[in-house]
Amino acid sequence: MLAGQFGLAAAVKGREPQVPLWALMLASQLLTIVFLALYALGIEGYGSATGGGLGYGELSLNADYSYSLVGALIISLLAFIVAATAWGRRNGLIIGFLVFSNWLLVFLVHRADLAVLPGDAGDLPHIGLGLWNVPWLAALLELVFVLAGSYLYYHQAMRTAVRAERADTKEGKPPGNYRQQSLVASLLLFVLLLGTLAANFFLGY
Q: Are 118 and 32 in contact (CB under 8 A)?
């Protein structure tokens, strides 16, 4: 769901332009970053849910800290506190939501491989809705996130460009190439999101 997570971050940027895009993208992958750090330490890992390769929809996580339900909530809360301290409560809530949205999307597509408590404490049943059992549907959902995120980002970028042009006109300056710059940035984001979606099929994620 990597492309879907980035697409959601782009969509949020389209609705909340005051939050830096880099912060939104980072927030959408913060749980993954924590997982990679724990993986490097040999604490967490991954494998194939089907016992074969790691094609699209076949990834199984052994991530009982970073992707446990309570662990994800704790990480989201910490991200909220940091962001709220730097940018205010509203922006902190947005960042915290995006961090936890990663877990929600993973919960949606993964088979039951997500722990409830950190470290799998209590030996509770693992959870996951298993949308990856229908790969074409999971891929379609990701594509929807990519298209919606790209459109909302483009729409907001153009609105910002128009406001900048009007401000230049008011000040008696020739309007800058704001719309062209916004179009290029939007197209670049769209291409990167599509590339991420294509990479998902090779990474199995």
A: no
C-alpha closest to that of 186 among 136, 150, 133:
150
> 190: which DSSP letter?
H
Read off the tokens for 134.
Answer: 């229908």
Q: Computed from CA positions of residues 78, 125, 58, 147, in that sequence, does the dihedral angle turn out positive or negative?
A: negative
- For residue range 99-149, what is the model confidence (pLDDT) as tens digits? 999 999 999 998 899 999 999 998 899 999 999 889 889 889 888 988 998
Name the one residue in this structure whose structure tokens are 């408590």.
117
Please name the residues in contact with 38: beta carbons below 8 A apart, sequence gap of 6 or more. Answer: 44, 63, 65, 66
pLDDT in tens, 65-112: 999 999 999 999 999 999 999 999 999 999 999 999 999 999 999 889
Statement: the pTM of the whole predicted model exceeds 0.90: no
3-state percent breakdown (helix, strand, coil) of the chain, nearest 5: 70, 5, 25
Give the position of tokens 């939104």.
24
In angstroms, the CA 42 to CA 143 distance is 33
